[in-house]
Amino acid sequence: MELGVVGKPNVGKSTFFSAATLAPAQIANYPFTTIEPNRGVAYVRHRCPHLDLGMPCHPNNAPCQDGVRLIPVELLDVAGLVPKAHEGRGLGNKFLDDLRQASALVHVIDASGATDFEGNVVPPGSHDPLDDVRFLEEELAHWIAGILSRNWEKEARHADLEAVPPERMLYDRLTGLGFSEPQIHLAVRDSALDEKMARWTPQDLLRLAHGLRRRGKPMILAANKADLATKDQLEAVSRVEAYRTVPTCAEYELALRRAAGARLIAYDVGSSSFRVLDSSKLTSAQAKGLERVKAFLGAHGSTGVQACVEEAIYRLLDLIVVFPVEDETKWTDKKGNVLPDAFLVPRGSTAVDVAFKVHTDLGKHFIRAIDARTKMVVGRDHPIQDGDVIKIVAKA
């Protein structure tokens, strides 16, 4: 599972990435600080079933803190995007290619309107961040349309003669971009295209590309630098149609996590508060800075960074968490570890889908599954619910 952290230069993308993952990233107040993509791991929170079992868990892939499982999610921080990136401006082609496998995008925008299209600093409020949302939509659509249009007419005529369904031809062309056949089918259906692919115009392909982007690369808006934005500015970006928007202050989140790492404060990621452990260790500047952060948390409930990642996973992508085990009575693996693993799967996944998620052989040789909570035997098409503990039974 991969989230792409995207946006124009100098809006706080790399700060957001570092705050969410604590992975190192070059951060500076000028365009194109990021050239090579940064990769790191963030986590989404979920209640751990060990609280129901009454025994401590022994996590493998997802640590547990005070009854909260932290399920890993990979984040990718790519180079800043400028208008006409699909034509090669800036680092555009590289930026777009780096996003091929991203399941969803976190679009970091400067909610204060203090950076122009190129990422240069301008007076606050002089640039409309909503323009950034529209231009990123266009860049992604033109990128996808460019991939679709290569040798389109010749191959489309051949596909029409062979009665190849559009979804099949498009799926083959879009291999490597992470689009599923259902996403392609819905985009084709919504684009009102001619039944003959050879008659599709460049405008048709661009319209289809917009639909593919919406279905296959959904975006959430991180209204960053919210500490510098006015109430009206935050309300304006929160009303962007068809998007979830989370006010964020990545700089504050990064400061809190670093302060917690230095044991200056006690802070749980995503929390609405923190506690100073020893005020005598704080410099005057640090104390004043923490007071500003405290005021922001009081007004917004959190810095928004963790909330943004979790909104993307749980709501935008509509994923749920499942806990596979090998012993349905003790909720353990074969080594006796209690609730060792936690996996993210799409809502609506079945028992056999979970089997494939754990291991391909389990999926191929699936016999049945057992709901560890109810001890009921369920079949391959049994729908999995969020938080289920499941044993997979397969042929040896």
Task: Output the keywords.
396 residues; alpha/beta; Helicase, Ruva Protein, domain 3; Ubiquitin-like (UB roll); 14 strands; 37% helix
Give structural notes.
The protein is α/β, with parallel strands linked by helices and 396 residues long. It has 3 domains: 188 residues, 3-Layer(aba) Sandwich (Rossmann fold); 64 residues, Orthogonal Bundle (Helicase, Ruva Protein, domain 3), CATH 1.10.8.470; 75 residues, Roll (Ubiquitin-like (UB roll)). It contains 14 helices and 14 strands. Strands 1, 2, 3, 4, 5, 6 and 7 form a 7-stranded mixed beta sheet that branches. A 5-stranded mixed beta sheet has the order 11-10-14-12-13. It has a two-stranded antiparallel sheet with strand order 8-9. A hairpin with an 8-residue loop joins strand 8 and strand 9. The chain is flat.
Short description:
This protein is an alpha/beta fold and 396 residues long. The protein contains 14 helices and 14 strands. Helices cover 37% and strands 18% of the residues.
Order of helices and strands: EHEHEEHEHHHHHEHEHEEHHEEHHEEE
**β-strand number:** 14
Beta percentage is: 15-25%
Please describe the biggest sheet, giving its number of strands, its sense, and whether it closes into a barrel. Answer: 7 strands, mixed
Number of domains: 3
Q: Give the uncertain stretches in residue-range form.
A: 25-34
Shape: flat
According to CATH, what is the topology of the largest domain? Rossmann fold
Helix- and strand-based class? alpha/beta
CATH superfamily of the largest domain: P-loop containing nucleotide triphosphate hydrolases
CATH architecture of the largest domain: 3-Layer(aba) Sandwich
Q: Determine the number of helices (DSSP H or I, runs of at least 4 residues).
A: 14
Overall pLDDT confidence: 91
Distance between the termini: 29 Å
CATH class of the largest domain: Alpha Beta
Question: Approximately how much helix is present in the residues?
Answer: 25-40%
If you compute it from the alpha carbons, what radius of gyration comes out, rounded to the nearest whole angstrom? 23 Å
